[in-house]
Amino acid sequence: MSGDGAGIAGIRAALPAYAKDIKLNLGAVLDATTLTPTQAWGSALACAVAARNAALLRAVAETAAAHVPPPVLTAAKAAAAVMAMNNIYYRATHLVGDAAYQAIPARLRMQAIATAPREAGVDKADFELWCLAVSAVTGCGTCVESHERTVRGAGMSREQVHEALRIAAVVHAAAVVLDAEAALA
């Protein structure tokens, strides 16, 4: 069940029969999407990082490398990294239920949101889309709302947002199933 060396096809083959929907969706959300390859594979890789399953991450990275150049992969990982911090902070300040916390400056370095897209030569809106997808995986409503407004303001359609959210959902589900099977083995 490692998925090593076989990319997404190996992960799909490793998913058990009870996860047939996930297996089918894993192919469908990445093959039949209205997103550009950069948008789709950046979303998939960022979400695989956030989902924390090593086999899935290796498989997505391997397959993504066949579709997008290395700087896109680096930027997608940067999106996952900065959102790992931001999603915890902004979700927590929201969940506390005291608006005063939301008024206090975060004072957390978040330069990757500005620099990673430029350094990788990717559209800032694509990077923001990856941040949105990661935020869906980690469950930060504040960040989902913020990044959705940003990408829509940059001209992305609701369909593009929807596609990134579908990718996030399926990548996360695949990680959950792989983790469950590993724990039960």
Which secondary structure elements does this structure contain, and how are they paired or packed?
Elements: H1 7-14, H2 20-31, H3 37-51, H4 54-65, H5 70-95, H6 99-103, H7 112-120, H8 124-138, H9 141-153, H10 158-184
Helix pairs in contact: 1-2, 1-4, 2-10, 3-4, 3-5, 3-8, 3-10, 5-7, 5-8, 7-8, 8-9, 8-10
How would you explain this protein's 3D organization?
- By secondary structure, the protein is mainly α.
- It is built from 10 helices and no strands.
- It has helices spanning 7-14, 20-31, 37-51, 54-65, 70-95, 99-103, 112-120, 124-138, 141-153, 158-184.
- α5 (70-95) crosses α8 (124-138).
- The longest helix is centred in the last third of the chain and has 27 residues, at 158-184.
- It is globular, with a radius of gyration of 16 Å.
- The termini are close together.
- InterPro entries: AhpD, AhpD-like, AhpD_core, CMD-like.
- Disulfide bonds join 140-143.
- This is Alkyl hydroperoxide reductase AhpD.
How many helices? Answer: 10
Broad structural category: mainly alpha
Helix content: over 70%
- First-last Cα distance: 10 Å
Summarize the helix and strand pattern as letters: HHHHHHHHHH
* Low-confidence spans: none
Q: What's the mean pLDDT score?
A: 95
- Estimated radius of gyration: 16 Å
The largest sheet is: none
Shape: globular
Multimerization status: single chain
Tally of extended strands? 0
User: What portion of the residues fall into strands of 2 or more residues?
Assistant: under 5%
